[in-house]
Design brief:
single chain, about 260 residues, alpha/beta, Spore Coat Polysaccharide Biosynthesis Protein SpsA, Chain A, seven-stranded mixed sheet, about 40% helix, about 15% strand, globular
Amino acid sequence: MKNIIALIQARTGARRLPNKVLLPLGGKTVLECVMERVSRSQLVDEVAVVTTVAKDDLKIIERVSRNNVRVLCGSENDVLDRYYQAARLLEAKHIVRITADCPLIDPALMDHVISAYLDQQAHYCSNALTQTFPDGLDVEVFSFEALKRAWQNAKLPSEREHVTPYIRTHKRMFKVVSIESSRMLGQHRWTLDEKNDYEFIKKIYQALYAKKPQFGFEDVLLYLKKNPSLLEINSGIVRNEGYAKSLKDDEAFVHG
């Protein structure tokens, strides 16, 4: 057993769309949809959820527990520490990082990234280093040793809040592998940050889930090709706005 653990990052306190991971979707919650899709990975040995110690996140603990999935709680803002402590407790050798605002995550794509990570003996591998896949299909795979090193050395707010920036920006220290799509699909927005995102994703689930619960991202692309007007629902929203905010916090941290 390679001991590959998928850790789904989830909290209720999203600034732009509070409680978004508990919104109804396909007869479940968004978080349960993510858990269901991640669990279909052929290479992941266990799926767990990492949430925070905030009182409001008790709702996440209750929901996850009903699904017989392990849930671990940690720091609200130091997500790097949250991940490190969870991975340490679960004795993970390799970690797959998925965020709970990605209910269209594709398990086949997850396995593709995991396979590349293993085959190339990388410290870190992701399909999100370049924006060639739809926003919302982000998969990151990294070793526990890389995570531990980041946990020990990362200081900037962006490095603590977003888990992997320290690894990604220290390429002399880590072997970083990028997975890119042969098609330019980065213009698609399939993540859940705002109300319009939710309306878009609901329409995708309403169209595809009942007929094929295990639908993949190619099914979504085909449906959007036939229904291009749906793309207008959440167009114009800035990608990775949260990370951009953290970079501004870095400037304040550095200059005091």
